[in-house]
Amino acid sequence: xxxxxxxxxxxxxxxxxxxxxxxxxxxxxxxxxxxxxxxxxxxxxxxxxxxxxxxxxxxxxxxxxxxxxxxxxxxxxxxxxxxxxxxxxxxxxxxxxxxxxxxxxxxxxxxxxxxxxxxxxxxxxxxxxxxxxxxxxxxxxxxxxxxxxxxxxxxxxxxxxxxxxxxxxxxxxxxxxxxxxxxxxxxx
Amino acid sequence: xxxxxxxxxxxxxxxxxxxxxxxxxxxxxxxxxxxxxxxxxxxxxxxxxxxxxxxxxxxxxxxxxxxxxxxxxxxxxxxxxxxxxxxxxxxxxxxxxxxxxxxxxxxxxxxxxxxxxxxxxxxxxxxxxxxxxxxxxxxxxxxxxxxxxxxxxxxxxxxxxxxxxxxxxxxxxxxxx
Lengths: 188, 177
Description:
The complex is a heterodimer of chains A (188) and B (177).
Chain A: H1 13-23, H2 27-48, H3 53-70, H4 80-93, H5 96-101, H6 110-114, H7 125-136, H8 140-151, H9 156-163, H10 167-186
Helix pairs in contact in A: 1-2, 2-3, 2-4, 3-4, 7-10, 8-10, 9-10
Chain B: H1 3-11, H2 24-32, H3 43-69, H4 80-103, H5 118-141, H6 146-176
């Protein structure tokens, strides 16, 4: 996985201990892991769910519950964040509700975007809000590829593996997604 | 907007967003339903019940043998084959008793038996246990009583059906889960 937007290059000693304790059944340690990663995971869920807050919350909870159940399989070969991230993507992609949602979605994006951790005074603030709205409005497959490739830093081969589409399709969907986003942002 | 500008804008998107509410309690409540370490929580009943069914099947066989065994002539008149059979019957009954003792303290409330009230399951099993105790007591006093032997065989059959049904319910429950 491309790490350009990942958190830490290595698992910290503290996180290693937390993972070990959580594997042994320590819920408090698992909560610490949750507190360290929930906002990144929520950002992923929120975007992948097209800005649907309730669905994103469900996805996040499902992802952490699955992480708890599968934690004994985490061997520390990768960073915990990477492992958790990948697991979350799989949870989201396997949830049919997202596909249903695309047909009936009318999003409210304003509140969530305003609660991001980056200050609102920079020059991109307004454009970012428009961009989030444009991404949320993309067709499901195009949005999935754009979020995973452009925002989360996965490679096309990884996206293809996770989504079951061909590498070429992933590239085509990205091209389509970026074209649609540009059209929305420029009002074409 | 060109590609470079779009890239720049996408890179400026925050990679951390806070949900409106604390989602941990919801996660924690789902973790709390587990009593043991991840991956081991409900493994025991899955293998124990089929094992119980096998034990009861064995017991059914032994019950048949016991019924006959109680009618057997004195040891001096027994053939070698009969002696071996008698030993097998005794061992089978011991296996059944051991399995039975293990099943009794099994906590049905934790077995998620859909469509069956755990309390009624326990009562049914307890009733069968009482009947068996009475029958075995009576048979010790009247080992050659055909009626008692037949009743014991019937009971063994019922116990087997009961455990089979328990296993089926548990398997159905697992599929639904």
